[in-house]
Each structure stands twice: as structure tokens, then as C-alpha cells.
Amino acid sequence: MSCVTVLWAMNAAICLTLAGMHFLIWLNDRKEYKHLIFCWSAFSAMGCAAVELMLMHAETTGEFAVLLHFGHVLVWMLVVSVIFFAHLYLQAGKPVLLWSTVAVRSLALIIGLVSPYSMGYGEITSLKQITILGESVSMAVGTPHPLAFVPILSSVLLFVFMTDVTVTVWRRRERRRAIMLCGSMVFFVLMATVHSALIHRGVIHSPFLVSFAFLAIILAMAYELSRDVIRASRLVHKLQASEADLRESEQRLSMATDAASLGVWVRDFTKDEFWASESWRRIFGVAADEAIHFDNLLGRIHPEDLSMFRQKLEKAVGEGGTFEAEFRLMFPDGGTRWIASRGHVKVSEAGRPLIIRGVSVDITTRRNAEQEMHDLRRELAHAGRVTMLGQLSTALAHELSQPLGAILRNAEAAELFLAMNPPDLAEVKNILADIRKDDQRAGEVIARMRALLRRGEIEPISLEAALLVSEVIALVREDAATRGVVIESVMPANLPAVWGDRVQFQQVLLNLILNGMDALSERQSGDRHMAIRATQNGAEFVEIAVSDTGPGITEKMDRIFEPFFTTKSDGMGIGLSISRTMIEAQGGRIWATNNDSIGATFHFSMPIDRAVSV
Amino acid sequence: MVHAIDDDAAFLQAVSRFLRASGLQVKTFCSAAEFLKELAHDTTGCVLADLHMPHINGLELQTVLIHHQHSLPIVFLTGAGDIPSTVQAMRHGAVDFLEKMAPKEKLLNAVQRALASDISQREARTRQHKLQVLFNLLTSREKEVLSHVVRGELNKQIGAQLGICERTVKVHRLAITSKLGVPSVAELTRMTIEAGFFRT
Questions:
Q1: Do residues A477 and A469 make contact, with C-beta atoms less than 8 angstroms apart?
Q2: Is A353 left (phi over 0), alpha (psi -120 to 50) or beta?
Q3: Which of A151, A585, B4, B41 is 20 to 30 A away from residue A169, measured at CA?
Q4: CA-based nearest residue to B6, from B61, B65, B88
């Protein structure tokens, strides 16, 4: 066995093995073109080694020429693949250089293919035997090709291109790559070019060693690629580990949310998708495999809560903030549950909403307890009010009956004394003095009662009617929801400020709204509507109108404001009379009208704050 | 005599003035305790009391009087009467229950009824007392005979029942009529019932 055959055969074998390996890698992942290109390069390098070996054993000039043609095709293949590898894998090299190198190399190939002795030689006169490593091998003797500068030009271009790539990679601070891969490419391309040219000119007597130069390049490429493969495999391991961590933490989270009965949900605005956890599906009564559409969910929210829900959601989405809402969710079986949801909106840099993540929890039990408390409190308050007024009226009657009874008895006695003959005028005088005293006493009783009923003095200040109205509506929102009353408010934006007492203004409005809701109790739940409108009434007043769709007022409009006049079984008949006292004390007026279609409207006017409006 | 009791001095004076001008005798007390201090066994007339008074109120005063077996009739006055106290007062024998602002006719009428009731009760009690004195003159045998007489039994039947002869019964009956001073059986029966001697 000769050394030469073994060396070249091993060279070819290494190249073939690497080509095969990377072809398999490419087959596994077709997107990784670098492996296909490398396979191409290694395969060409293997061919070069084989051709070189055969050249050494060629016996005729004709055989030599044919092999040279094959060799040139393989060299072209290799050069082109290395260029593209460098360009694609290292993301470097100017396209102009790349394409001109390929073009000149292709030109050299064409010239080689049409020339009888390929590109290196103009003519091969004979084969000469030389001894390498103790083995006798063939070598051509002839004249160089007249166009030999073309392949040299192509090699120079290749050299320039590779240098450009090396510089770029070096500047990117990938120095190992620049030295290992680019450096070897530059060096061995240069070496192979010079060596071949010298052989062609007969300056040195040696077989072609192009394949060894190529082997060095191929090994450098293989080393780079294998580093990539190792890195990728490490990444896969890391990814697996982090995925396991992720699953673990997901499980923990799921356990925690399950324990707290928290339903987790995510809505993706960009894809218009809605994802929800199992516990969320349990809360909302959605099957595990059922697709969730956000619009369907909106349709299940109680109509009275829907506009509030939408407003809050739109605000959160618009501003990229936190979303929080408590609402009633309707179920197909007619049931209703209270749900509390809380989410956070993530927005893009351009301010567009990307995703909202949140949790929901069933708060029906809590809400029911709150409702019971609320009902109880209201009943207690009412009972307390009735009892207090009852006691008050008893006390009033008792306190007043003393002086009034005394006056009556004294007057009757006086009549009798005057009827006597002679009349007892001295006694009558005493009686008249007593009557005056008792009359004063009765007056004092009344004054004391009034002082007791009046809570504090009026403190007029400048008031924003719209703000006060919205505060009162917020106060009765719960109550209204319970009674199924929909309250709407219409507040013009440029409403002037009014001048009055804040507490009394709100007490009157509250009283009118509560009266309206009482009036609506006879209506079907869908027909219970109230509207609160504010308008400017002339230059001096702002008018607030509270309308309901109740049965309207059948009594005389003036009488309903009289004290102790009531149409309610449990009413005291003092709400409207107190309201009138309060409004008139502030320079306003209160009156009622029946609506054209249905229900009644209570109006009250408040004077405009002149300090602000002027 | 009307015993007017009220914690409100002005009203007390007014009502007593009116009652006096109407020809009645009035004594005023500014509390139930003051009245009870002066109350004697032979106090006559009626009580005109305010229902709402400090310490001892009208209803409590009524209870005390009943407890002492004092039958002074009571008229209640009140500023604002409530149903439970009215019911209690009337059930315990109040003559009337009036508001302080009641018309004078109603007030006078109630007071006069109370006074009349006191007089008739007193007379009934006096007569009963006298009868009891008379009845105590009878011997036990005579009382026994009388009990049969008022049942309308004949002398013969009485004699048979008591195991005495008819003559002896006649002697006893003569003694009874002479001691009590009543000749007829009908009158005798009425007196016997009135004296509470027999419960038939």
C-alpha cells in the first residue's frame, strides 16, 4: 500500500463522511441550508481528492486531460459553495464581490471545458514520472494556457472577497471565527492558487495539492458548524429544563387559583382570541372544550351592569390600565351570579392594546350577604324613622294638650264666672292672665319641636349640580338595582354652578328619587325607568327634573307638598313638605307635573351662583 | 268633692276653676302621692286624675285604690291616650277616660256620673251595714227558720225539716218579723238578699 494513495483516499473519506453527516442533519431540519451548502462543499472536496489521486496515476495525456476537466468542475462547485457558505452563514461579504467572483470563476470553467487540456495547460506534451513519498506519480509537462490569468483573477477576487468577509467578522468581534474560518479560507485559497499556477508553469514538480487546501477549509467549516450543533443541543437542554420549571410553576399557579376559586383569563386583542383556565370555565359554566367568544360573554352580562362593564373595560383598554368590575352574570337556566373581575391591559409602544390578563371570582355569597345587610339597614332606618316620628308626634300631642287643655278649661270657667250675678271679674282677670301664660307655653313647645326637627343651619356655597346628582345616583345605584329601576341622567356640559346648601340639595334629590322608585314598584320590572335632567331655567335658575314612569299623580298638585299628606301605606307624608321647606329656604321652588305619556316629574329649581356666572 | 290630681299646675288650676264655677267642690293635688297621704276611709267624692304623671301615674293610682278596697270612682284625663292604657283603665272600673281637650259637657257629665256613683255606692253600703246589724239580733235558730222562709217553704214543711212542730215555727217567724220590722215575706226576702245574708 502506497502512502500517496492512503493520504488522498483518507482525505476523500473524511470529506465524504462530513458531507454525509451534514446531509443527514439538513434532512432533519430543511430550513438549515448551511448544512446543505456544507455538504455540497465537502462532497466537492471529496471529488477533488479523488480526481487528484487519479491524476497521479494517469498513464496517457488524454486520460490526464479528461481528469483535469472533471477537477475543474469540482473546483468550481467547491469555490461557489464556499462563497455562498461564507456569505450566508457569516452574513458578510459584499454582494458585488460575491457575484463577480462567481462570474469570473464560471468564465474560467467555461474556458476550461472548451479547451482540450482544460484551464491549466495550453498543451500537454507528455507525462513525466516523479517520486513523492517513495511513490512514482504522473505529472503533466506542457505549456501554460494562454488565458491562465482568468482563473488567477478569479482566485484573486475570491481572496479579496474572503478578506472582506474576514474583516467584517473581525469587526463584529467574532475573532475566533475570523481567524479559524475566514483565516483558513483566505490562507488555503491563496496557497492552492499559487501552488497550482506554479505547477502549470512547470516551475515546481509536484502533484496537485488543492484537495488538502480544501480539506483544511472543510475542517474549519465543519468545526464551526459542529459548535453550532453543540450550542443548539445545549439550548434544547436548557429549554427543556426551563419548560419543566414553567410547567411546575404553572401547576403551582393553577393549584393556588383553584384553591382560591380564581378563574384566570387572557384576551388577545391582536388575534381576537380568548383563553381561560378550567376554574374560570367552572365559574362561568363553560364546558372545557367549548370555544369562548368575547361577544357571547358580553351577552351574558346582566343588561343593567352591561354599560358600566363596557365603560370600565373601554377605559382600561384605552389607557392601558387596570380593569376592575363587579357584575351579574346570567346563566341559561335563568340563574344569576355575581362575578368580580380584575385585569391588566398591556399596550404596544404605539398605544394599541395587545393583551388583557385577569382573574375572575364568584362573589355571589358576599354580595347576597351585603344585600341582606343593606335591606336590613334600610328597614331599620325606615322603622327607626317611623318610630321616631311616632314618638315625636305623641310627645308633641301630650306637650301641647297640657297648655291647650288648660286654656280651654280656663276659658270655659271664665264664661261661667262672667255669667254669675254679679260677675266675678277678679277671677276672670286671673284666668285671662293664665290663658296668656298657657298660650306662650304652647308656643314654646312648638318652637322646641321645630328646633329638634331642624338639623343645623343652611350653609349655602357654590355647587356643581352635575357632580351632586351623580353622587346621589351612586348612592341609590345599589337600591335601584335591587328594585330593578334603571336611572338615567342627562346633564348638559355647560350647566352653571348653583348657590345652595349641599346636604339639603342632595337630601331633596334623594327624597325625590326614592319617591320615584316607590312609585315604580307597581310597574313591571322592565318598565321601571327614571330620568334625572338638569337644565338652565332662565337667567337665574337651574332646574332639576326627576321623572318616573310610575302611575302619576292623581291628587291635587299643591296638596302633595302639604305636611302629613301621603298616598303611601307606610309613609309619613313629610318628605315632600320638608323638601319644599328646604328648597324654598334656599330661594328655589319645587313643583310637580304629570308627564304627557306616563308617570310624573318632580322639578326643583336652585338659584345660579352669580359670583361664578357673571 | 272632686279630687283633681295633675302634675301640670296650670291645667290643675284651670280644671278646678272650671269645676268650681260649675258648682262643684274641688280639692287639688299636684301628685298621686300627695292625694294618697290625705286619703281617709271616709273620703267621699271622685278622683279626676291625669294618666301621665311622674312617680305614680294614673293607672298605678287606680291599682292602689283597688288594693285598699277604696271604691272612689275615677275619671282619667290624658293628653294623648293610647289604646292599651284605655283598656286597662276601663277594665279596672274607671268611670271615663277623657282627653284633656274634651268638650266641657263630656267632662262635667263624667264627673257627675262619678259623684253619683260614689253616692249610690255609699248608700248601698250604709243600708247593708244597717241590715247586718238587724240580722245579728236574730238567734241562730231564727236564722235557720228564715233561710227556709225566703225559699218560700210553708210552716209545715219547715217544721218537718227542722223536726219541730208547726207552732214553734210560727213563734220563730213572729220573732223574726218583729226584730226586722217587716211583715211581708216578699220584703223579708229582698232584705235578706240585700244584706248579703243568704246567697240563693
A1: no
A2: beta
A3: A151
A4: B61
Count of H helices and E strands in chain A?
17, 14
Find, in chain A, the residue whose alpha carbon is nearest to that of B14.
A410
| Residue that has been written with the C-alpha cell 227542722 in this structure | B162
Contact A402, B79 (CB under 8 A): yes
pTM of the model: 0.40
CB contact under 8 A, B21 and A417: yes
Burial class (CB within 10 angstroms; exposed 0-12, middle 13-18, buried 19+) of A195? middle
User: Can you list the alpha helix ranges (DSSP code H) found in B22-82?
Assistant: 32-38, 58-67
DSSP A4-59: HHHHHHHHHHHHHHHHHHHHHHHHH-TT-HHHHHHHHHHHHHHHHHHHHHHHHT--
SS3 content of chain B, % helix, strand, coil (to 5): 55, 10, 30
If one counts every other C-beta atom within 10 angstroms of the C-beta of residue A503, the result is 14
DSSP at A497: P
Distance, C-alpha A404 to centroid of its chain: 76
Helix, strand, coil percent content, chain A, rounded in steps of 5:
60, 20, 20
Separation in Å, CA of A436 to nearest CA in chain B: 11
Across the interface, of B8, B21, B104, the residue whose CB is closest to A402 is B8
- Cβ distance A208 to A52 under 8 Å? yes
Residue in B closest to A413 by C-alpha: B18
Tell me how far apart the alpha carbons of residues A82 and A606 are, in angstroms, rounded to a whole number: 91
How far, in Å, CA of A181 to CA of A177, rounded? 5
List B42's β-bridge partners, or say none.
none
Contact across the interface for B100 and A412, Cβ inside 8 Å: no
The answer on pLDDT for B152 being more than 70 is: yes
C-alpha cell, B149: 222562709
- Where helices occur in A349-424 by DSSP H, the ranges are 364-419
B108: chain A residues, CB-CB within 8 Å = none
Cell of A184: 483558513
Give me the residue label for grid cell 479559524: A180
Give the minimum alpha-carbon distance from A410 to chain B in angstroms, rounded to a whole number. 5
Q: What are phi and psi of A522, to 5 degrees?
A: -85, -15
pLDDT tens profile A444-456: 878 766 665 554 4
Q: Name the DSSP class of B93.
A: T
Whole-number Cα distances in Å, A113 to A108, A120, A415: 9, 11, 156
ipTM: 0.73
CB pair distance less than 8 Å for B21 and A413: yes
CA–CA distance, B80 with A398 (Å, rounded to integer): 5
Cis peptide before A116 (omega within 30 of 0): no
In this predicted model, what pLDDT tens digit does every residue of A109-139 receive, in sequence order?
998 888 888 877 888 888 888 888 888 888 8
Residue of chain B whose alpha carbon sits nearest to that of A407: B14
